[in-house]
Design brief:
Pathway: Alkaloid biosynthesis. It comes from Corchorus capsularis (Jute). Belongs to the plant acyltransferase family. The chain is of the alpha+beta class. Helices cover 29% and strands 22% of the residues. The protein is globular and about 60 Å long.
Length: 409
């Protein structure tokens, strides 16, 4: 049973850039990739045990000062989304910063972490009294034991995980007094993929019936991953990745559950997998390129009795075929708008009523643990923290996972 605890707000303010944004940077256009993202904040939680941490007040001052300095470089994050949803007004309005006191020990809360309870450690986008929500919402939670949890929500409309990792890494470096400060590039992606006027995805609320969906955390023992990879290996894919192995297992289990819910009636199924395009571009985009650079890989089952090895093959084939060198040249050519807006292979699956459709994403390889050392060591646990949410039943229910490496206290 999840542990009950009280989160008491003790401080709230707006953190603004330490230096004003130059006039020539006051407006920043979004890219076509940004336009395809719905308006919504993605939640991240960084948990730090009390391993000789400084007093709460000292940590608080350090976080606020370094955040202000970081916003000078990430000036777009201190602005607000324009009413046209095609640009950012870099007006230095700042980001929301809240501090709380939690009436329990961090280690006790994390013995059986519960998504809905952990969501209390995150700020809410509704904190903005008027106008658009801030791009970044920070909530710093202090526990009785001296441990802390930093909750961060970021607006997906202007940043993907690669970009937010860059932001957190820079913020942490500023806090440590390190010279490893990134200077993000907010212009390259919009130049390569310009915005389209009168187009945007405003929210997740499209016509259809809303249904509340519960989120669950599944833990895979690290020692079991090599065993799973060996189990799903085949002549076609002799060396599957851990992502391929876990996605295939989740896909198979989701299909089995759907079949059971239908009283045993089997259907074909499809899966959409979010893909980071930075390293796949020709030439690859530098890591400092900020914004969204995402697409979807689509795979589907060939029959109703698909085994794990076959599912892995579908994932591998989909990635190879849809993100080959020729495909990436098409994405960056005259047909880029069609490829980005409609993702032909994925659109065909979404339009079909004769199959179950799932969506997943992996945050492996983004080095969130290594990036978030503010001077008191790497976090013990980093997680995507989502409580209950209403999803449109006409859209695919996402299977999102992150290898967090949490091994207990």
């Amino acid at each position: 049973m999840a542990m009950e605890f009280i989160v008491e707000k003790i401080h709230e303010e707006i953190i603004k850039p330490s230096s004003p944004t130059p006039l020539h940077l006051k407006t920043s256009m979004l890219s076509l990739f940004d336009q395809t993202q719905p308006i919504g904040h993605v939640p991240l939680l960084f948990c730090y045990p009390n391993n000789g941490l400084a007093e709460g007040e000292a940590r608080s001052q350090l976080l606020k000062k370094s955040l202000s300095e970081t916003l000078t470089r990430f000036y777009l994050f201190a602005g607000r989304l324009s009413s046209s949803l095609s640009s950012m007004e870099c007006n230095d309005e700042g980001v929301d910063y809240v501090e709380t006191r939690v009436n329990c020990r961090l280690q006790d809360m994390l013995k059986e972490p519960d998504c809905e309870s952990l969501a209390k450690l995150l700020g809410s986008p509704q904190m903005a009294a008027t106008g658009p929500s801030p791009v970044i919402i920070v909530k710093v939670n202090f526990f009785e034991c001296g441990g802390m949890a930093i909750g961060i929500r970021f607006l997906h409309k202007v940043a993907d995980v690669s970009t937010i990792k860059l932001f957190i890494k820079t913020w942490a470096a500023m806090a440590r007094g390190s010279s490893d400060h990134a200077v993000p590039d907010f212009t390259t992606i919009p130049l390569l993929f310009p915005t389209i006027s009168d187009f945007s995805v405003r929210s997740d609320d499209v016509p259809g019936q809303l249904r509340e969906v519960a989120f669950r955390r599944l833990v895979f023992d690290a020692s079991k991953i090599p065993m799973l990879k060996a189990q799903v290996a085949s002549r076609d894919v002799p060396q599957p990745t851990r992502v391929e192995a876990v996605v295939a297992l989740l896909w198979k289990c989701a299909r089995a559950a759907a079949t059971t819910n239908r009283g045993g009636f089997k259907k074909h199924s499809g899966l959409l997998h979010v893909v980071n395009l930075r390293k796949r571009m020709i030439p690859p985009l530098p890591e400092l390129c900020a914004g969204n650079a995402l697409s979807m890989m689509a795979a589907q089952t060939l029959d109703c009795e698909t085994e794990l090895q076959s599912l892995v093959k579908q994932l591998r084939d989909g990635m190879r075929d849809q993100f080959s060198e020729s495909s990436m040249r098409k994405l960056q050519g005259n047909g880029a708008v069609f490829e980005i807006l409609f993702i032909p292979s994925g659109s065909l699956l979404i339009q079909r009523d004769d199959l179950d459709l799932y969506m997943c994403s992996s945050w492996c390889g983004f080095e969130l643990y290594e990036s978030a050392d503010f001077g008191w060591g790497k976090p013990r646990w980093v997680t995507v923290c989502i409580g209950r949410k209403k999803y449109n039943t006409s859209k695919p229910i996402p299977i999102n996972f992150i290898f967090d490496g949490f091994i207990g206290w």
